[in-house]
Write a structure and sequence with these properties.
The structure holds two protein chains of two kinds. Chain A is α+β, with helices and mostly antiparallel strands. Helix content of chain A is about 20%, strand content about 30%. Chain B has 28 helices and 30 strands. In chain B, the strands form ten sheets. Chain B has a six-stranded mixed beta barrel. Chain B has a four-stranded antiparallel β-sheet with strand order 10-13-11-12. In chain B, strand 6 and strand 7 form a beta hairpin. In chain B, about 35% of the residues are buried. Classes of the chains: A alpha+beta, B alpha+beta. Bound molecules: magnesium ion (MG) and zinc ion (2 copies).
Amino acid sequence: MTAKKEFAIFDHELVPEHRVLSEEEKAELVKKYKIKLSQLPQIKADDPAVQALDAKPGDVIEIKRKSPTAGVYYYYRIVVGD
Amino acid sequence: MIMQSIKRVIGSIEFGILSPQEIRKMSAVEVTVPDTYDDDGYPIEGGLMDKRLGVIDPGLRCETCGARYGECPGHFGHIELARPVIHVGFAKTIYRVLESTCRECGRIKLTDEEIEGYMKKFELIENRRKVREKLIKEIHKKAKERKVCPHCGAPQYELKFERPTIYWEIRGEEKHRMMPSEVRDRLERIPDKDLPLLGLDREKSRPEWMVLTVLPVPPVTVRPSITLESGIRAEDDLTHKLVDIIRINNRLKTNIEAGAPQLIIEDLWDLLQYHVTTYINNETSGVPAAKHKSGRPLKTLAQRLKGKEGRFRGNLSGKRVNFSARTVISPDPMISINEVGVPMDVAMELTVPEKVTEFNIEKLKKLILNGPEKYPGANYVIDPEGRRIRIMETNRETLVEMIDIGWTVERHLMDGDIVLFNRQPSLHRMSIMAHRVRVMPYKTFRLNLAVCPPYNADFDGDEMNLHVPQTEEAQAEARILMEVQNHIISPRYGGPIIGGIQDHISGGYLLTREGAYFTRLEVEQMLMFAGVEVEELPKPDKVENGIELWSGKTIFSLLLPKDLTIWYRNKLCEDPKECEAIEKLIEEKLIPSKEEIRKVATDGFVYIRNGKLLSGAIDKKAYGREDGKILDIIVREYGVERARQFLDQVTKLAIWVITHRGFTTAIDDEDLPQEAIERIREIIREAEQKVQRLIEAYENEELEPLPGKTLEETLESKIMAVLAESRDQAGEVASQYLGMNNHAVIMAKTGARGKILNITQMSALLGQQSIRGKRLYRGYRDRVLAHFKRRDLGARAKGFIINSYKSGLTPAEYFFHAMGGREGLVDTAVRTAQSGYMQRRLINALQDLKVDYDGTVRDPSGIIVQFKYGEDGIDPMRSWQGKTVDVDRIIVRTLLKLREKG
Ligand SMILES: [Mg+2]
Ligand SMILES: [Zn+2]
Ligand SMILES: [Zn+2]
């Protein structure tokens, strides 16, 4: 890695919570929405949040977003290579 | 053979390149003669109008299928090219493929490991097109860098592509031109297994098929010749082009056979390439367009498809339909919001197919007897076999006898029929709504004024379209989903988009304001006019000199649902203290007595309890569009049908009041007493002095710059602030002298039309004119107009107008005003253009998304866009001003019900 300033992105108030799903949770998600993993929205492996979580392509990330109408809203994105 | 209509569902469409074998297979004839008809006007055999290609002359028979003109669909032919030529449409792809592959062995210039890696990646991405395209680009970049083939070790040369169809190989000093045959040879060598990495497919798109050896000739039905009035045949542009191709092809062939010098052959070859190129696309850059004798460029294949009038945008996306009408619109306040007035002429042309049943047969027989000329009649009948028979004077009686259950009658449009009504530009859902027909005299479509906002219609010559659904399913769907009342609440902001406008609001105010009383005669008339049915009038609110009087509030209450309760602060609430008193009273006591309310009642605060308007006047906040609270509540709590009834009645009631009381505005509405004029002059004088002092302070360098601003900017913003304040003050003074008896003021304050600012500008002063938020500064050197001194920073020199529209502008002021006005015009023009473009882009991006049954938003391939529609799963049209539910209202309603029960 190039010399980068250490910056904990999850400490920033505008960055929502990110979490890597376990294999079981992944299977559950796929079942719940009756989808193939390729039908999930994608997130690049070089996305700062993905790098901070040290997630690998194929992992599914759960993002807990704040919503003015729904309170919290969970979004799932699959990590893809570049 | 009779053309049979076979209905089949298209499962999928695949695009590929035609192989020479396929072209020959589908060809009915090889075309070799560069001509069309002989001197007798008979198709030449082997020519471009050969009868095996189909026929366009009545009387001739197709030699392929045996059918006549109109029945034969036409058949392809082909031309065997003497030498291969590049297909311009693929010229760039050919270049990419050549660069990516070895000149000797044809393999892709990647190592075996790389090939394996990429193959895996391709499997993973399946059909995500964007990623696939990116990957193919990457492969190309990597492969073309290889100077030595990883498979056979042959050295590679750099390739150059010269538009439109020439390829060069740079062999050190020597530049070698690759003729199409050489290109084709190379492409042929590419093994099938490498094709996926090049974005090709062995079955659908072998690379060598991008170099043409056989050219398909489209059927004559695609390029029919037309006979001019003079009797001369004019051929289609495609035919002209094909004649050129065949002529050169034949010359090339004879020259090759005769063993002509290479130079001559190559010249002819290039000429053939030119003709084939322009045949495919006559707007290829770098190629002079093929032209007609008249100088008009030929319209060849690509030109038929491209652009606004092309096959896609013109014929496929933009279809024309039957059973539709278009005419000018005009207003009719007496019809319901879900009706449309249809001119008699239109009603007699548009028809509705009605199936004959035992219940309607007598009615339909009468209609048939009336025929197409007399309303209400019918234009056609359809027999059980599906044959359409025109009703005429001569066959009327027979048809009436023949008609029975199983037949269909295409009868005239009649009152109550459902139709779709539309105004362009159809920017949102409410641009097409279903209305019920009211057949009327004269020649315009009539619509209720409350539906002007969703259509964005006015009556300065606007035209609208009308469509008649032809099946019961379509009619039912229109009735259930599309009728106007179903669209009162806009999905955009969760409030009413259909509602009272202009006079509906002013009239409502005049009816319900404090002190508005009406006699029995007036009350009876207005209720009759509005179509309100009352068994008995309520008790009069007061009796003066023996005359019974009803307050407007009492009458208005007759239109409300009997248990409607709501309170809100409206636009007329100017003194918050006044409104707070009543608001507190209601919220504390929940059910205060009538007397208590009357004591604190004010026009600015509306309180409706159990369908009785106890306080407040009606303004835009009651049933106006965008913020009509009462209308909003009625839609949600009493349903759309009740809301329609309410809106129909309340607008008519308001119109009765405004017409019978009289409502007008004229220049004397802006009359101010001398005293007011002097006060305004004083305000302006003071403002100008303040500006002068600021300028002096600036010149004496006494001005303190504001943070983040230069000294000049500071001065400007301070001057702007002073002048803006002076206009506000002047407006204040003006409105002090213009009360609620002034019609312009009524319109502004109730929200019916215009703003107080407009009145200020008419009666007091126009104020500062600006461009891009700045005082005017452009024009002459250091001044806007030559009538001022250079570098004059004073108010009047830079666009401050001290006159009003009524007092009249000085020439300089007039010019300043025109400068400021120009900005507005430019802004609207630019905004519409930009938003129209954005609309197109958004529609293209979002049109195929849909909400699935599990609440997710997905694209057609099932890729999830949102896990819950709108992140909360809420339909904005059924939301409460964008929020899910109004909890406060639910609590209050429950409390009220409990209290009333005791
Ligand atoms: Mg107009
Ligand atoms: Zn035929
Ligand atoms: Zn090789």
